[in-house]
Amino acid sequence: xxxxxxxxxxxxxxxxxxxxxxxxxxxxxxxxxxxxxxxxxxxxxxxxxxxxxxxxxxxxxxxxxxxxxxxxxxxxxxxxxxxxxxxxxxxxxxxxxxxxxxxxxxxxxxxxxxxxxxxxxxxxxxxxxxxxxxxxxxxxxxxxxxxxxxxxxxxxxxxxxxxxxxxxxxxxxxxxxxxxxxxxxxxxxxxxxxxxxxxxxxxxxxxxxxxxxxxxxxxxxxxxxxxxxxxxxxxxxxxxxxxxxxxxxxxxxxxxxxxxxxxxxxxxxxxxxxxxxxxxxxxxxxxxxxxxxxxxxxxxxxxxxxxxxxxxxxxxxxxxxxxxxxxxxxxx
Length: 332
Description:
By secondary structure, this protein is mainly beta. It has one helix and 20 strands.
């Protein structure tokens, strides 16, 4: 399973590496070739992505004038044995939908998609999910369900608009975004988890929800999840109860993931080819430390992939003694 930390940490996906071969001072292209298959990519947006239908993605149902414990098309995570039906409330009361208050009133969100959003109390294991096994509070199947499977050659990304801090949430309170698949027995098998940590805003301002993402690289023919049903989860990772999260505008997308290939040297500079969606624009990042947080990677510029593959040359002269790592992020 892939663990990603949004905004502050790193991913365990391996980037393309430019390194020196021991003893000869030359780049080791054999080593490079072993690190090509869509490794170390971080995706952000993309006009070529295909949106997968996700019922009640912005929590508009059921319609409410204030709040409702029901969430159309979404199921609630099962109550764990350790949870006592007491404060902060019964298990089924920990998630639901609410109506955005009018502009000018305290608590109004300026960027809610539609009129409603969802709430999720920061209680360990409380959460919501969607897959083909989801049922409502009465145990019935919803009218519409997530009905899609992982396709070979496609990468997948879920984006959720999130805001924390409600109800006196403690600094560092965690929330998980999860992509899973259903195995032959309909068990939920996690594929990737993105960790969100609550940190107070440095200064007052408009009340906004912020996008966070979880993604997996391109599905391979031999992967256990190839052809299996897709599932998504949003689950509290809090250690102890306290506060609540607001959620909105869940987007599930599939796309052809960019691949970095054909590493070579030209005129003292390292170059490679980006293969991906025709018409997509990619931003290239580099670092000397593969464990460095995402936000510290140096941007080397952007390239437009007009035909499906495009060459990129690092403008910094290559140094055989200093390894470099590269990522391509789709930005348009």
